[in-house]
Amino acid sequence: MITVTIDGKVIQTDKPKFIIELARENGIDIPNLCYDKNLDVVSACRLCLVEIEGSKKLMTACSTLAKDNMVVHTKTDRLIKHRQRILQMLLDSHPNDCLTCQKSGECQLQKYSYEYGVKFREHDGARREKLVDDSSPYIIRDDSKCILCGKCVRTCNVMDDRKILNFSNRGYETRINLDINDTFESSYCISCNRCVVACPVGALMDKRAMNLGRKWELETKKVQCKVCEYGCEFEVLRKNGKNIALRALSPENGRPLCLKGRLTTELLNVDNPKQPYKKIGGEFVEASWNNVLGLDKILKKIEKIDNK
């Protein structure tokens, strides 16, 4: 057994774990914007730095394994000031539109900025350029809100048959690209929504679930996709007694997420599902539910059998 003390709480574990995961399992929240237990660790945001007794250097909780007799502090004055500086730099480059942003109430940057008392401020320095990709009926991207945590790139690259998202340029000009500067429509993106689920801010959003209600207005119910054995999880958004939209949940435990599964689950659970689209020749076109879900041949066969 490994015994670790985090913020005065003595914790025991029978196998090596990263400090952030051990803390999370025991109700201790260590701020982070780039960590996901299902993805490779990159320690990019530096928000999860902690103090370990016996070490002068601050250590990233997402990449430091807990060791026996380790004593960890997560909320010292030194750490608070460090996190405030990081959050301030992110806000200085972020659009001040939290009041109208669809991610409000679920945005991790908003959450930690509130907790650490960091606010938007006026300055003459650079801000991220507002580049909006509205070409897809399933995903909308706003580069001005991107914090370059890389979670979208990593979750896309988990799937060998996808690997669409990547980093381009360097320094402050760094941005996320699809293929080679393509849009969602012209790229090879299959609209699985893995990137949307991973994004901690409003840079990537589910377009079919937008502008239907705020987080605090909605009820949610978890459902599973029945298209294949993976059973990807979704949540049905409900407002005023009606099921108004569907949203993908984390694709953990090897679940891939796919558009066919999402649309099938949406059709079965949403009262008035939106028009489906299919990508043909690099363009999204309206299509029938039969065509999008690949039911044409099945229905024709059933009709033929029934006619007999």
Automatic annotation (TrEMBL):
Keywords carried by this UniProt record: 2Fe-2S, 4Fe-4S, Iron, Iron-sulfur, Membrane, Metal-binding, NAD, Repeat, Translocase
One CC-aspect GO term: membrane
Superkingdom of this protein's organism: Bacteria
Residue ranges occupied by any 2Fe-2S ferredoxin-type domain in the UniProt entry: 1-78
GO molecular function, one term: oxidoreductase activity
Family in the record: Belongs to the complex I 75 kDa subunit family.
PANTHER family, per the entry: HYDROGENASE SUBUNIT, PHOTOSYSTEM I IRON-SULFUR CENTER-RELATED
The protein's name: Formate dehydrogenase alpha subunit
Species of origin: Finegoldia magna (strain ATCC 29328 / DSM 20472 / WAL 2508)
